[in-house]
């Protein structure tokens, strides 16, 4: 094993997709001979035993306390240890990852760039200033602020938290009368955003930054729940797009990442393709959720997504290889109607299908299916691989429809 050490800030959240991300990352780090340290609160570390099994050591550092991980790492190095690269998987770990890399003097994103990407209105302002098409947006402290925005900007509009994930508190407002209900959906009483709704199919761009330059690995087509909510229920990768659209999307995403200043790690950039062209949405300095990482590594056989990132952080020259997708993958979520589960049929047969890469179902008879307003309300999913995007999307849809979940609504 090499003496080089990778600090894995925040480890994994105790969710199947996040744990799978961490396991793949640590496995690829081990294949490169790296020693790995994982940090988080003890309760989170204990909730992810498969991650701890792959790490060389785990240490307590609370992500909610800004600078705590950086201070711990600096002390560790001062005591004679070494930390050569710093990496974080999930959204809330990105600022601390950047702060720690800067404190140690190793490669990483500037904390200010990460803050800009993570704070939705800052990101909108930076992109608009650089000339990118952006919807009008306002940071609001109250429903009264939001109403003022509605009166001066054409609708419909979206109400959403300033800093949240998983479609929590995101809803569509078509008229002023809809505003109180939208504000009630927000997760807390803090400042929130109202922005103009963008009409058009939605995509995301997945990639990594190598030698400071964005490398697009794939564009993902998305399907969401019917309005007024925005929960993602399906992804297909690579998206079946005309070559000209692909080139323009890649050009704009690359320029946006440069504008914001992200230089290392992964990226996941959301956008809409409108009749007037590309409109960029949220920019994330991390890998996309919803098992997109598994879709990428299936679509590009032999790809070690995290290994390339680690090589870049350490200044290693990666072995040249093609990063073009040669096959396709899709994930689709089960969306039974709300109510109490009476019976589940067909799940075992679907899980045994040879094209299934991963499947999970959190329901049992007697459980309650919630109204689908945020990502955590989703109750199951199926990930499949296929030869092309159309086959992947069709197969994922057929398999989810083959699972029959009977629910009864309470009287």
UniProtKB/TrEMBL annotation:
The keyword ATP-binding applies. Signal peptide: none annotated. Residues 124-314 form the ATP-grasp domain. It holds the Pfam family ATP-grasp_4. Transmembrane segments: none annotated. Gene3D superfamilies: ATP-grasp fold, B domain. Keywords: ATP-binding, Ligase, Nucleotide-binding. The keyword ATP-binding applies. This is ATP-grasp domain-containing protein. It comes from Dactylosporangium darangshiense.
